[in-house]
Amino acid sequence: MVFSVEFIDRVLKADDPVGAVSVRAVNGIWRTLAAGPFARSSSAEASGLSPVNGLLFGGGIKQLGVQALGPLSALAWAVAAAVLLFLAMKRTIGIRVTDKEQLDGLGLAERNIEAYPEFLISAEGGVAVEKVEAIIRPERLDGVLAGLRGLRYPGITITEVKGHGKQGGVTHMRRGEEHDVEFLPKIELEVVVLDEDLARAVSAVVKAGRAGAIGDGKIFSTTSMMPSASAPARAGSMPSDPAHHSARCS
Fold it and tell me: Is 185 in contact with 138 (CB distance < 8 Å)?
């Protein structure tokens, strides 16, 4: 069986990752053929079978031919039936999936699930998407969320952060005394949108997030590709790509 696995994998280059052909087909053929050279009449009688000697025990080549007839008959039947069945399927329902189904994965096409999503990779021909990241004032969050939901993008990540821009913070007057506040509370918002919706998504964030004063924040977009099955508004995380664009809310 070991030699059979090596031959099928290395010589025939057949896709048999679990060695099913070797374990079932090759082992079955060998067990059938082995009676031809190794059969002994004494063993056959003890098992209640017709006494017969194999080739190595003086029985001649006849028994080997009889034993070989079984696997050959089964092989001929299997090949003929498979060819006829595949031809019938090819003429009717088809035997190949579309290019899109191959890219998305048969788990989605056949069962509507992502099999092994940790191994899902992007490929040419996927969907162009943009990851929009915005830093906004906390009090502007509800308006921004409403704008993005209006574009049918409910999948949003929000993080409470602190920071400052080039002003380096602000100075507040409290009871007649100045207090420097270096890091101001902000909201970091992330959403993945289709490339065709980027301008509308940015416009929605800027329109709702702008107060018209210093500290309104900034907005960035990251260009990437992702499998169509994981497109935003349906599912999925996005692999990053080093192409960036940015704009200011203020």
Answer: yes
